[in-house]
Description:
Layout: E1 9-12, E2 21-27, E3 32-35, E4 40-45, E5 56-61, E6 64-65, E7 69-73, E8 78-80, E9 82-88, E10 94-100
Antiparallel strand pairs: 1-2, 1-7, 2-3, 3-6, 4-5, 7-8, 9-10
Amino acid sequence: xxxxxxxxxxxxxxxxxxxxxxxxxxxxxxxxxxxxxxxxxxxxxxxxxxxxxxxxxxxxxxxxxxxxxxxxxxxxxxxxxxxxxxxxxxxxxxxxxxxxxxxxxxx
Length: 107
């Protein structure tokens, strides 16, 4: 089970965007994620008339390594460590849940 998933609120803990928060939009296989509105870079785009792409300079969101972000705890509004524990339903089936390590609340 992954500790950070698509749609989670995260906070950047290192780098030039330190302290900014956003929502995870994409998780890549190389331990990098894309967060909405964070780590914007300038990209020069060549025009392509066949695809109806006008050339110019555009801003895109670059990926951030997963070690540079933390899950945002909505109660404290700070980054928090996440743990995984196994719970059991009344029918005997087990399932995993994520929880914040500071206050043991489920994510």
